[in-house]
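Dear Dr. H.,

I hope your travels went smoothly. While you were away I took the liberty of generating a structure for the chain from your last submission, since the lab meeting agenda had it listed for discussion. I wanted you to have the full record in hand beforehand rather than looking at slides cold. The sequence, exactly as received, is reproduced here:
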Amino acid sequence: MIHRLGLNLAGALALGACFSTASLPASAEGTLTFDVEGYDRSHPATLGLGPAPVAETYTVYAPETAEDYAYNHGAVLTVFQNQFYIQWQSSFRDEDAPETRVMYAVSEDGENWSEPRILAEPRDGVRLTNGGWLSDGETLIAFLNIWPLEGTPQGHTEFISSIDGVNWSDAAPVLDESGAPIQGVIEQDSRALPDGRILTSFHMQPGLRAAPYYTFNPLGTDGWTAGAFENLPYEGEVSRELEPSWYVTPDDEVVMVFRDQGGSHETIFAVSDDMGKTWSAPQMGEFPDSRSKQSAGNLTPDLAFRVNNPRGDRSRFPLVLSLSDDGYEFDRAYTIRTALADMPPMLFDGKYKRLGYSYPKSLVHDGVLYIAYATHKERIEITRIPVEALEPEYAVERP
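The corresponding predicted structure, in token form, is as follows:
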């Protein structure tokens, strides 16, 4: 839902709003850059980049007939009790349709997947989207974002839980540190920081205003506390910063990277030097984007990654993995999927469907990077790459 909401950038900048950053770091010390040898926008299928080494791709679900649910998006992976779980939202043809339901599948090896199962049925009067996973090893939590069918683009977050991955509790609201329901929808990227706290972002009411939150509850069902963060000036109901992901630098700074809904097709970023309690003023980086959801994290404590479509326009291909040793300069990049022979055809039309690889989310498990995404908002797919293959001595020569 978030990705198709517009913003008048010129109007937002014309506001000239000033905000106090007295409780925030004055600014990020580094500048986020994408400086990769061989990167070339005149080659749109690959951007001049070579393929990720030792990459393998698997299909979780793909519609085959006109009776199948053909809109599938928002793939998110986790591991629970030695099995892989993946969730996504699914509808017949159109994005944000009233019949949207949340699905999941299970795998022993990340290659062969069960038939899709229903995680959350459609509800009367609202629309569902999936909000990601958390687990403490004994309980698996699935987050659900609940949206109004019409009117203001805002919603709230609920969760369901399971101890076996089969039987699920009734839905309940996610709570803040005061015990009140969070008045916002959760980003699909809740993960633990080095000190154990869980970091994510909610898109808060009224409208959709991106805001970092943290909790010390490993299940993320309550205790959420807002970090000190000020959005860039904007007008209307939607902040410029949307759908962030994050990683940690070797200096223990947390870098949160945002889609810029203002239409720059670059990346907004903010930095925290106290594990998410306070954040620098958001600023523009020099890292191309497609104005889409993206994924970031750490392959090792000294190696950050980001997965996005670094096009500098709205096209969502190729899907690219970028690497950085310091968390600010990303100087190596590889294609995960391209617009060459590895791109299947789109089989079914639908509202807001588009060619390309959308909304990646990643999981690092047992020395392997797993990247889940939707192909054409139709197929749920996974690409996996051994982390050791991404070390410099395994790098492939770029064209």
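Two observations you may find useful: The chain has one domain: 2-14+30-394. Residues 354 and 376 are 5 Å apart (CA to CA).

With kind regards,
E. W.
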